[in-house]
Structure formats: C-alpha cells, structure tokens
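Q: What structure does this chain adopt?
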Amino acid sequence: MFEKEAPEASIRAPRAVQTRSIAAEGPAKPTMLPWALLVLAIGCGVAAVAYLMSSGGTDTGTVANTIADTDTGADTATDTVAGAGADTGTGTDTGAGAGAGAGAGAGPDTDPAPDTDPAPAPDTEPAPAPNPNAIYPETGAVDTYEAQLALARRLKRGSRATAAYRRAIELNPEGSPALAELARLMLARNHTREAAELAERATAVDPASALAWVTLGAARQMRGDRQGARHAYQNCVKLGKGRYVSECRAMLR
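A:
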C-alpha cells in the first residue's frame, strides 16, 4: 500500500512545482490580450470547420458561414487593437491641441488706456485794486502819482524828494512833469547821464515841456555834446512853452 502511494506523491510534486512556476511567470502583458483573442478565435473557427468536414453532415453553405463568422471575429479583434491605438493617438493629439490652444490664447491682455480728463484751469482771481489811502513807507505820503509829485515839489531836494519823484514815475511812467523835474534834480547833482536820459523821456512824452528841453540841452553841453545841446535848445524855442523858453533863447546866442 505504501509502495503505491509513493509514486503518486512523486507525480503530484512536479504539478505543484509547475503551478508555482506558472504563477511565478505572472500574467501576460495587457497589450498581448487582443492578439491572444484573435489567435483563439481563429483556432476555434478552424477546429469547427474540421469537425464539420469530418462529420460530413454539414453542407458547403454552413461551412462558408462558419468561416465568415470566424473572419468577422478576427476583424473585430483587429479593429479593437487598432481602435485602442487610435484612441491613444487621439488623446495625444487632443492634449497637444489643447496645449497649443492654451499657448496661443494666453497672450498678455492689454487694457485700454484710461480716459484722462483735462485738468481744470486754475481759478485766477483778479488783482486787488490799489488802496488810494495806502502810505508809501519810503516817503510817508499817500501812494499815488499826484501825492508823490506834490511831496517831491514841496521838498525840492534831498533823498526823500528823490524817492518821491522815483515813486511817482513808477506809478505813472509817462508823467512828463515828474520826469523833467527829476532830470533837473539829477543835473544839479552832476548826474549828467541820468539827467539826459530822463529829459529825453520827458520830451518824448510832452514835446511842449520847455523844462525838459532846457535840461536836456544843459546835460548834453556838460557832457561835451555841443551840437546835441544846440539841437535841444532850438527845439525848446520851437516847441516849448513856459518860462524856460527864454533861457533856451539865451543859450543860442
């Protein structure tokens, strides 16, 4: 009895080893499954045809139908494999297209320049009107042309009189009396150049001012311009009015 069981054990042992070796090999790769199905379908079709031909009970039409069904199964398997590859390529193309579209549409967005309203013009208030009662600090008189000229005439000479004449000319640059009288004051101080300039301005504003002409003639004469001085005296006689015309005539003799 023991002798019979021993051979069975020796026979079973290789089966176990074979099972473990098959299990160790692992499952087939997923990519080989469609081809395995194709081979299996073809094998089944061939076996069925051989069986029908050997039995003799199947006509030619049945065999043809069987072969056609087998081909259909093979084509289906082939289409499955091809479809899997095509789907994989389509996915790749889709990803590439999506990436390209994203890259093409991902350009920097440029916002339009904001509308800027022009800055409003500053409100310019008119200059305040001069106060007629204001006092000019350097002379102590009301800051008007008439008041400054009156103060200068009353003082006649000195720094305060000079400041009053200058202030009067600032207030009225075309005031011939202030120009002519300040020119005479500068001539008395031997400031011949300034005296000639002031007298020329006075004669340009008022050609009838005999004081301006006689002062201009005297300033030019003191500066050595005898011809210019004689011309000023002649204009004094022709155009001038007032008591200084007689002095101009005396200078022409």
